[in-house]
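re: ur question from yesterday

yeah so i grabbed the chain u mentioned. its 228 aa long if i counted rite. heres the sequnce exactly as i have it in my notes:
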Amino acid sequence: MESLKAVFFGPDPQTQMRKCNQLIRANTRQLDRDIAQLKTLDSKTRQFILNASRRAQRNPSQAKQATNETKTFARELVRIRKQSARLSTSRAQLQSVQMQVNEAFSVRKIQGSLKKSTGIMKDVNTLIRLPELSATMQQLSTELVRAGIIEEMVDDAITDNQLLEEEEEEADAEVDKVLQEVLRGKLTQAEGVAPEKPIEEEEQPAEEFEDQEATLEQMRGRLEALKS
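ran it thru and got these structure tokens back, copy pasting raw so excuse formatting
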């Protein structure tokens, strides 16, 4: 019955609005899961930085290697935080899209007509380029076009590769800042000068450092999965 009504009278506005809201909620849940995962990675990476720094202080002969490790972990932390910030911004955009879509359907119900929204189209066009949301945002885009809320989507001129290149350049400049934050200003020197007051903590076994390296590789894989 609904399909026959759609053929003769067009899609039912209430059905369209429910479908759009379902897709938006599905996207929001996906973003919440990804943001939570990045928060866990953030915490683990901070701990790896601290562990590598303590190792450099306790073992001057390994100070250079440990210092390189702290910078590697700091670089990963920068990437994690950039991705987390991007997803948080995307979540806010998605919430804005939901409010605008519901408002558009409300106006249509009251006035009997619907104006296309360039604001919604801009936000959807941005969100549809996120790998995390691409599939469901394509569906949402189709529904919004059918409802007459937006025009057909047009790709942005800026590519993901360009954005990634810019981020890599910025990341190099932010590594020291992250190290200052995590280590509270006590950056480990490459030569490995022993601290005046030794840290009274048990030395970690070599196997634990190997586990850290393995975990770092897993973290990189997860982060790349979120970005590609």
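noticed a couple things. The longest helix spans residues 63-111. also Confidence is low (pLDDT under 50) at residues 1-9, 156-160, 188-204.
anyway ttyl
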